[in-house]
Each structure stands twice: as C-alpha cells, then as structure tokens.
Amino acid sequence: MNDFAPSENRLPPLLEVQHLSVSVARGAGWQPLVRDVGFRLDGGLSALVGESGSGKSMTARALLGLTSPGCRIDAATLSLRGQELRTASPAQWARLRGCHLGLVQQDPRYALNPVRSVSWQVEEGLRLHQRGLGRAERRERVAAILSAVGLDPVRRLLDAYPHELSGGMGQRVMLAASLICEPELLIADEPTSALDASLRDQILDLIARLAAERRMTVLVISHDLPLVARYCGQVLVMRNGELLETLPADRLAEATHPYTRMLWRCQPSAATYGQMLPVMDEGEWQ
Amino acid sequence: MSDILSLRNVTIRHRAGAHAPQAVSGADLRIANGEIFGLLGPSGCGKSTLLRVVAGLNRFWSGEMRLLSQPVKPGSPLRGVLRQQVQMVFQDPYASLHPRHTIGRALAEPLRRLGERHPVEQAAAALSRVGLLPALLERYPHQLSGGQRQRVAIARALLTQPKLLLLDEPTSALDKSVQAGILNVLSRLRAETGTTLLLVSHDADVIGHLCDRAAWMNEGRLGPALDRAAMVAALPHRHVAGMEPGEKT
C-alpha cells in the first residue's frame, strides 16, 4: 500500500520525535497530558489512533507548535529534516507551518473562516508565504489545487462562503488550503469524523492519492482504527497520553496489546449481528 | 405479530401549509412488535424528520399513522399511554440533557410525574441497567463523558418502560470503542425486554450489526423494507486486510 522504507539518499528522516512529553501546569507542579512519546515519520501514511482524551491531538499540536502558551513541551528530539523544532521562534514556526507542514482539522464548519470566501482562504498560504507570486499565478494555483481535491473551480465555488458548502465540500476546501504550499508533512486530525460514512472513504482515498502523487508524508489521527488502517502503513496506538504500540497496519490482526485488539475488533458490521462487541473492562470508564 | 407502528402515505413538511417544501413524501412503513428496524440514508434525506413525526415532535404531516394499534391524527400531539410507550434517544446527548439539572433530577422527574413512590431508587436502577454506577446521579451532564451521557439518555428513555424506542444516530457523536459499549447496551435491552427499536443511522455497519430489517431513504423517499438477508446483501461492506469482521476475540 505504501512504503516506509528508509529513503535512499542520506537525508535525515522527515520527522523524528523522541521522548516527547506535553504537560500543563496544575497547582505547583506539571500534569503530563502526553508522556514520553517517540516515533519517526518518513514517507507514506501513518495513523495515530486512540480514544478521546488519549493525547493524540495534543501530540499533533506539539508537532505543529500549536500547543497553548500554558503547555510545557519536553523532548529529547523533535526535528523536521534535521532541523530542531524545540528551539524554533514563533516566526520560524509560522514559516514552517506555512511551507512545510499542513493541518486538516475535524470539522470544516468550525475550522474554516466563516467570513471569508473559499478562494480567499485557499489562497491565503500563497499570499503569506510565496510573496513572489503574482495575482494571476496565485489564481491559477488555487484553481489547480481545487481541481486536485476534486472540486470544480468555478466562480460559484470560489466566491462561496463556508456555510454554503456541504460537509464533504468543506473538508475538500480545507484540504486544498492546507496543500496549496505543498507541505512535506500533512497532519489530518480526525479528517472524516464529522462526515457521513459514505464520504469518509472518499476523503481518505483522496488524501492517500494526493500523498502518493506529491510524495507527501501524512499522519492521520483517528479513533477509528479499522478505517484508517486500510490506508496507512504504520499505526501508532495511544492511550492515556502514552504510546502503547507502533506496528505495521498489516500486522494489526496479530496485535498483542489488549487495548489495540479491542480498538481493532470493536467495529460493528453485519457479521457481528447478534453478538456482543468487545469493550474494555466496563469498570474502567466509571 | 401485530404492528407496533404503521405509516401509510405519510408526507412531512417542516411547517404548516400546502406550499411548504416536503421533507418526506409518501412514506409507507410497518414495524412489527419486538423487532429492530433500521432507517439508513445520507445526511438530509429525511430519516430524522420521519423519526420526529413518530415521536410526536413534528405535527406538520399528512397521511395515516397507527402507533401501538392506536390511530394518531396529523396535527395532534401524542396522548395518554403513547407518551410513555414511545420514547426517543437523540444524537447529541449533551444537548438533550438539562445542563443545570443533576442526572438524578433529570431521571427522577418523569417518575415523579407518573406518581412513582421511590423515584430516586428507580433512577439508580435505570442507571445500572445501562452499566452506570448510582454515584453518577449526583453529577451534572458536563461532568460525564460522551459515552456516559448517551447511556444516561438511554436510561432516561427506558424509565417509562416504552414499547417503542426511537434512536436518532445514537452513536455517531461517539468514539468507536465507546460506540461498541452503547451498541451492547441496546443488544442487551432487546434480549432482556423485547423492546422494539427504530434506529436511524447513516452508518451501514451499525445498521448491519443491530437490525433485523431496514429501509433506505434518499431525498425524502423511503424505500421498501428489506428483510435481514436482502438488507445484508445491499449493505456496503468494509474490507479490512487481515481480518474477518466479527472474528471472535
């Protein structure tokens, strides 16, 4: 499905994370939300899965420098193509997010700016980070990226506001806006959970196809393990702020950790009719 | 078996007047006592609208409806025993629980109205039926997780021992692993009490897991009811590498 073999050239890995912790101040001390997480992303699609509150979104925000000011980030290594991110200044972060990192969020109804048109939002990255481009070139790039995400760049769409878009269209617009500057790493935080079941596959198919075409590394964050496992080569499982397991998606059926097994098998389907689904010990969430 | 719900040529609008757009047109449906019936369709197809008419929440409809063998007239609210025997669980449990009432208060209120002598004990029993501890009675909705809130919403709906439980996307706001717990609560409910469930969902996997029969809806039109075999054949299947869905753990 995808290869995450080491690249032939001697470039450092795209993203290297070692011993990453994110904490918030509580009383006199620090309460960790993410504890000692380490992984490496270099090509292909990877999935970061876990339940609500497992720390998966917080991990993604740390990778994007988007944790709120009260958070403390500790890491042995946090680097993008060898460039150290821990010491990046706000201006450097802005440049990184503009040019090298992309983010697709959960719900286009909230993530898109409600008072700006589609073309304004998709173009914004170019205006800010590729100053050399003229207006006509920018317009061409916007039309090209909208076509690439499966939207027809007609006037009616370019001038539309987010409330006029359906959920699936909004998600495609957000994807276009995050891809316009051709990031090397795209982080998709629950890109499909606000969408109908029939649209989920379409959006993930699209992300997988664009990743292959653009040689882009993608980290998909989701609570739906069986869904993302079909698209991803590598799966990272988080729980209670810790990385439980990292394993190749095709080995999920043999996962040994009971939590991973539960996430893998709690998917209902016509074949589970009349059966109880596996859940974690019912006492745990009391 | 007798029908618990039958609809004939039901057309639904969101407001009064013959010129208001039709959200659902000419729907025919019969649901037998004790079955789990699924309504499947994309966002905006009218499936929730249909459910709200059955729940008595939308009165702008025409056609014929019989609920528990009693005729219901268009424009009139549900009356008498129907108000207890038809209950609904909504998609977003946070929006459907009073934010400033404790769970105990929210659950005990309908019991008091019905003249129960020990509403608090009954509310605690209702929580344990959906796998929650009585200690939760003192909490407010914001102090619960999403899965706990949906369990409370189901417990509330079951307080009056309904014959027909209407479920509007009961798990679509929840994580997969939390969804599994809610689906287990519903499976257990059906096994223990034989309550009829009418489940609305856009998720074919949830319908396939739970329902005995189902019908598809699209753009306000309700398709024919399919029996289990025809329904399973019509469901889009997920294919997951290396796993048979439903493989025993």
What is the averaged pLDDT score of chain B?
89
The sequence of SSEs of chain A as H and E is EEEHEEEHEHHHHHEHEHEEH
Instruction: Using the CA coordinates, give the radius of gyration of chain B.
Output: 18 Å
First-to-last CA distance of chain B: 36 Å
Q: Which range best describes the helical content of chain B: under 10%, 10-25%, 25-40%, 40-55%, 55-70% or over 70%?
A: 25-40%
Largest sheet of chain B: 6 strands, mixed
Low-confidence stretches of chain A: 282-286
Biggest sheet strand line-up of chain B = 6-7-8-3-9-10
What share of residues are in beta strands of chain B?
15-25%
N-C termini distance of chain A: 40 Å
Q: How many beta-strand elements of chain A?
A: 11
Q: What is the SS-derived class of chain B?
A: alpha/beta
Which descriptor suits the 3D outline of chain B? Answer: globular
The structure class of chain A reads alpha/beta
Q: Which range best describes the helical content of chain A: under 10%, 10-25%, 25-40%, 40-55%, 55-70% or over 70%?
A: 25-40%
Tally of strands of chain B? 10
* Residue fraction in strands of chain A: 15-25%
Order of helices and strands of chain B: EEEHEEHEHHHHEHEHEEH
Description:
The complex is a heterodimer of chains A (286) and B (249). Chain A has 286 residues and is α/β, with parallel strands linked by helices. Chain A is built from ten helices and eleven strands. In chain A, strands 7-8-9-3-10-11 form a six-stranded mixed sheet, sandwiched between helices. Chain A is globular. The termini of chain A are far apart. Chain B is built from nine helices and ten strands. A six-stranded mixed sheet of chain B has the order 6-7-8-3-9-10, with helices on both faces. Chain B is globular. Chain B starts with a strand and ends in a 15-residue tail after the last helix. Chain A binds chain B through residues 51-52, 167, 196-198, 223-227, 229-230, 249-253, 261-280, 282, 285-286, and chain B through 42-43, 131-133, 145-148, 175-181, 183-184, 187-188, 202-206, 208-210, 228, 232, 235-247, 249.
